[in-house]
Q: What sequence folds into this?
């Protein structure tokens, strides 16, 4: 059974999908079960440069990765943020040579964010108390 906002990857073709509405079936691509991607935790030595930092202010939220390369062969592919109730979800797709950050111009408190590195995978973010 899938859950809302889980992310899955096909290890054959590289498709990445996100569950919008959960269901009872298994996700299959290229004839194989898709892999559920779990964000890496703080025990991983690469977490520091891969985990997005969340900066909430009165009028906006900025989410960024400060030390990750954004080169042709190694970059952050997307940043996703959500409110605690998961009713508001924001995603920004990134490409090589972009700045690894997103800005949300709504008066919402963002507590959760993830980023996806094309080489190292999915990472969970942390809230910074400004």
A:
């Amino acid at each position: 059974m899938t859950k809302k906002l889980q992310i899955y990857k096909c290890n054959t073709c590289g498709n990445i999908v996100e569950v919008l509405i959960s269901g009872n079936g298994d996700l299959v691509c290229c004839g194989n079960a898709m892999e559920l991607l779990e964000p890496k935790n703080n025990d991983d030595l690469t977490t520091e440069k891969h985990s997005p930092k969340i900066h909430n202010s009165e009028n906006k939220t900025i989410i960024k990765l400060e030390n990750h390369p954004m080169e042709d062969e190694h970059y952050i592919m997307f940043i996703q943020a959500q409110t605690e109730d998961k009713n508001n979800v924001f995603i920004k797709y990134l490409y090589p040579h972009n700045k690894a950050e997103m800005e949300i111009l709504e008066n919402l408190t963002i507590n959760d964010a993830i980023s996806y590195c094309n080489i190292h995978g999915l990472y969970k973010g942390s809230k910074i108390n400004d």
